[in-house]
């Protein structure tokens, strides 16, 4: 269960740290890399925060993470000036590999029909008439799109 206060502080920290990193760190290990803060996990007591960092291109990830960890005191101080909290949590930076894994899964799924085209289902109406969508069965299929500014239909009294 998430606590709204913790969520609010996590979101503020994420924006502030991203803003500090967008301004740039004067570190050659960060050159030509795009760094994104994907998530901030704040401990319930508010003393520690785990900051998930995504780096593009992925091969620069460990090098950029080292630069960010080296500058964590500077990042914490700059973020503290943006947020204005009484006590800013200790920041622990970790490399977020979720986007990299997600991209590899999507790439693998994209190659499946190329590897086994005979296993891909063919839903043409002449081969599988019971599986093909029937436009006559759905009367709303040929209806005109609704105008968002048009008034809603009267559905009776509110309950």
Textual characterization of the structure:
With 159 residues, the protein is an alpha+beta fold. The protein has a domain at 4-96: GMP Synthetase, Chain A, domain 3 (2-Layer Sandwich). It is built from 4 helices and 3 strands; from the N terminus they run αββααβα. Strands 1-2-3 form a 3-stranded mixed β-sheet. A hairpin with a 5-residue loop joins strand 1 (34-42) and strand 2 (48-56). Helix 1 (4-23) crosses helix 3. The longest helix has 20 residues, at 4-23. The radius of gyration is 25 Å and the shape is globular. The two termini are 32 Å apart.
Q: Trace the largest sheet across and list its strands.
A: 1-2-3
- What is the H/E string? HEEHHEH
Radius of gyration: 25 Å
Question: Helix fraction?
Answer: 25-40%
How far is it from the N-terminal to the C-terminal residue, by CA? 32 Å
Number of strands: 3
Mean pLDDT: 78
Low-confidence stretches: none
- Describe the global form: globular
CATH topology of the domain at 4-96: GMP Synthetase, Chain A, domain 3
